[in-house]
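TICKET: design request
STATUS: open
ATTACHED STRUCTURE:
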């Protein structure tokens, strides 16, 4: 049975009996802007309009069909400011931060058991997020960049959790190291709102891309296909088969015939993955966290080509691509028994269009 601390009991009393609620922004003693809100121009996604009617998704998690379609359009888009908040006397217990009526969850699992309390930390800056602690792709895109912002303020702090398969090597390659804690009290803790894909985020993406390039030598692959790892595939099949690529062997065979190198995430270490992708012009893969391997290794102005399941249409990598300066394209699959399939003729034409975009208009 999971133990409940006095900190948690105090929070529950405020929440359930007194009906109190607060966020870290409400309870901060100081707030300051690291980078202001800004408007940036984005390019349109590369795709074919005749595939759009295949999309059957209307709501996926916290997004909507309308929002996903808006991400694809060219024009002006507003990006949130990067804002730091200073909190005092904050406790980390069972994967959540507590202060008064605030609970800020950082780990999704409710099975996490707190070990013995650690020595108090006088000051630190939070360098992890709930999504980054849940999904590898968000750890790559959100938490690595957040770490750079955090270390500019104080010692970066992250929740102690099981590591992703490629995480230790990526931390070494990009020199991202900080203290991991499980149950501790902070005298002062800085928490950064870092959602906006603004110029400050772009600078940190580029810093990480430079660090990766300094750590590995390119294998010389111009075209790359990232095969989803078995662990991710099994996890998806347990929840939902809509993102399973049923003709994966056919897709891989075609891509090999066109000169694509296949990256097997189950067999390759992070340095091997990075070397295989480094300076590639086009990187292809099904939608999912594994495509984050390309963010820091693909060449400047390269292209991400996403194989989209029609029942789970989401374009979070479009936001990352826009910020970094990459091209973003996709082809929509056809729903079938056990998942979705990609039509080879559709794959052929989207790759040709992306290569034309990257080489003629980089």
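STATUS: resolved
RESOLUTION: sequence designed for all positions
ATTACHED SEQUENCE:
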């Amino acid at each position: 049975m999971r133990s409940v601390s006095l900190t948690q009991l105090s929070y529950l009393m405020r929440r359930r009996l007194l009906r109190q609620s607060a966020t870290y922004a409400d309870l901060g003693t100081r707030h300051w802007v690291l980078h202001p809100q800004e408007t940036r121009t984005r390019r349109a996604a590369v795709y074919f309009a005749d595939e759009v009617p295949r999309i059957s998704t209307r709501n996926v998690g916290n997004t909507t069909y309308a929002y996903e379609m808006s991400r694809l359009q060219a024009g002006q888009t507003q990006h949130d400011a990067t804002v730091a908040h200073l909190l005092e006397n904050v406790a980390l217990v069972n994967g959540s931060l507590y202060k008064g009526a605030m609970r800020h969850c950082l780990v999704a699992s409710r099975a996490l058991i707190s070990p013995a309390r650690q020595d108090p930390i006088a000051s630190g800056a939070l360098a992890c997020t709930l999504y980054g602690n849940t999904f590898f792709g968000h750890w790559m895109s959100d938490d690595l960049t957040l770490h750079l912002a955090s270390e500019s303020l104080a010692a970066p702090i992250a929740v102690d959790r099981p590591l992703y398969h490629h995480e230790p090597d990526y931390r070494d390659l990009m020199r991202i190291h900080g203290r991991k804690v499980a149950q501790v009290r902070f005298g002062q803790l800085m928490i950064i709102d870092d959602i906006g894909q603004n110029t400050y985020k772009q600078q940190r993406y580029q810093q990480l891309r430079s660090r990766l390039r300094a750590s590995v030598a390119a294998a010389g692959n111009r075209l790359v296909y990232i095969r989803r790892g078995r662990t991710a595939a099994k996890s998806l099949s347990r929840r939902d088969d809509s993102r399973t690529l049923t003709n994966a062997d056919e897709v891989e065979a075609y891509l090999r015939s066109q000169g694509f190198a296949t990256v097997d995430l189950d067999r390759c270490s992070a340095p091997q993955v990075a070397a295989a992708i480094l300076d590639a012009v086009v990187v292809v893969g099904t939608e999912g966290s594994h495509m984050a391997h390309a963010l820091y290794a693909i060449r400047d102005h390269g292209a991400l080509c996403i194989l989209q399941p029609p029942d789970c249409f989401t374009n979070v990598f479009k936001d990352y691509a826009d910020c970094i300066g990459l091209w973003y394209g996709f082809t929509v699959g056809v729903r079938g028994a056990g998942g979705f399939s990609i039509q080879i003729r559709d794959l052929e034409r989207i790759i040709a269009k992306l290569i034309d975009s990257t080489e003629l208009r980089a």
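CLOSING REMARK: The two ends are 57 Å apart (CA to CA). The first strand starts at residue 30 and ends at 35.
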